[in-house]
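Teaching assistant here, posting this on the class forum so everyone can see the example we discussed in section. The complex has two components, and the goal was to see what a joint structure prediction looks like when all of them are supplied at once.
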Amino acid sequence: MKRHLTQQQIPVAASGVVLALLYGSGCALFPRFGSLRVLINLFGDNAFLGIAAVGTTFVIISGGIDLSVGSLVAFAGILVAQLVAQGVAPLAALALALLFGAAFGALMGALIHFFELPPFLVTLGGMFLARGLSFVVRAESLAITHPFYDSFIAQTLAIPVSRRLSIPFTAICLVLVVIAATALARWTRFGRNVYAIGSNEASARLMGLPVGSTKVLVYTLGGLLSALGGCVATFYMQSGNPASFVGLELDAIAAAVIGGAMLRGGVGFIPGTLVGVLILGVIQTLITFQGDLNTWWTRIIIGALLFAFILLQEMISRFARRD
Amino acid sequence: MIFAIGTLFFWAAFAAALWAARGRVVFWPLLALGLLLLFDQAVIPGFFSLEARGGHLYGARIDILNEGAKVMLLALGMTLVIATGGVDLSVGATMAIAGAVAAQCVVSAHLPALLGVAAALGVAILAGAWNGLLVAVLRIPPIVATLILMVAGRGVAQLITGGQIITFDNALLAYLGNGWLLGLPFTLALVLLAFGVTAVLVRRTALGLFIEAIGDSETASRFTGIPAPTVKFFVYVFSGLCAGLAGLVAAGNIRGADANHAGLTLELDAIIAAVVGGTSLTGGRFYLAGALIGALLMQTLTTTLYALNVSADVATVPKALVILIACLLQSPKFRARLPRRRERRAS
């Protein structure tokens, strides 16, 4: 048990150290980097990625993979924008988008479970399907102008910190989702089942765990959180765009892996995923502050980080198995 | 008149191919391709027209072959990788790197084009070797291992091109993407050559057997004395080489290296081509000809949808359905629910 804990904790601790180093170096290099505004924006700007990445983390822990994330985020965004433009109440539009995301995920999960199809291909199909459907809903981007968005979400639900600074609702959503998901993963039967199935599906089945319903639920949760990410993205961008968030699933997977999840399944830590998302965000912010560093360095650095964390994970798990 | 006979000849050849493929896995994607082409001939006017201009053949079917060439090249390497139970997500990024290297060799370093081609293929092989190292030596799961290069590779390509689209005016490099050979696009000859070499390599030697054995059970293959790590390393290097070739074709097509868009999402198309062609993602069996037909099927579908004025954005929906149908047809669980033909024949 103790070794199991360290096996999970070392990568998360390592990513925490990396985050602290990156953030610290940013503060040392740029005088305004350490300001509260940058910190708040770090959460607010990356909220949709963080929420989607939490869903991805559950899927990865269960031993699967979800490639439909980016398309579903875009779909939820354009669906909400289109419905609001047609006069549907924003809350109803948001609820409908969430419902669609959950149903879409459930359908993928059902295909994966009942026909034993590879998650990679099913969610790849889901990615193409959701992307195409986004363009069916509306072929170009659409701004959302509604009092609910302009005043309620942007002002009433934001927590003021000082006269000119407030914590946006998107950041609050992210923190709430991470707390709820952590509780779900750690202290519920569903959470423990997800870990068990990811570690060894055959033994989970022999133990009498509800493998089928848990797998379908994991993809349902993934779809739901992707749609929620899309809804939160509309709060942030005040618009929906069917062509947006291409490849977001890769960022989500990268965040989960950097945060300690293993694509083999059975290992993962929800707050770690938040750390992973923040690392990606800090790299982005650093490159923006630097100004003359080119954006392609972001990709190379993320790739290098991925490599380092995967190597660390492999070494730890091999060490743990050897004992 | 000549082309009416040509069309008749085409269908006769197609029927002969179907007859030759009966009872094999390749039959089904070939049948699907035939049905789709039949639909095209019936519904889309001018789809089957062929025109000879300046000694070159033009027509929708030629376009399909030419446009599908990149995915066909990628699918050859991808099929072998999938057969070992792996997957290579980095081929799209490797294409971008190869194109960038070739363009910079010619444009910035003023090297002869042949050296540029060699350098591009060399770098692509290196990229494959990196994946092979991670998968075969460090034993990292292939999805994660190749994800690293998928994420970082496009950044590397942009680093090489300096974020610009490097255009070139080199006859040889342009020929790789746009050239003609015996009235047909050169890319077709390249695909056939690559297919021939690959088929001989895996079917005339024990290599194909080794690959399938590893995909079936790596442990068992190791006990029978198959050098599993070496074979796995080889398939990733081979996939990198195929991606390099595809990258050169992509650069030749537009006479330039576009690090942002060259090969974007083609890794997914290559995986789809392999799967539609009958190769299962679990590994253990592979069908090279099936992968080529799978690539052609997907390209024909895309061309058909464009001809029907379906926008490129919405065209992903039918693509998704083809993927789902292909993997459902491969699923033993799904097939068990289908009415069994074989039992009737046996009784």
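For the discussion questions: Chain A has 14 helices and four strands. The CA atoms of residues 67 and 85 of chain A lie 29 Å apart. Think about how each of these relates to the inputs above.
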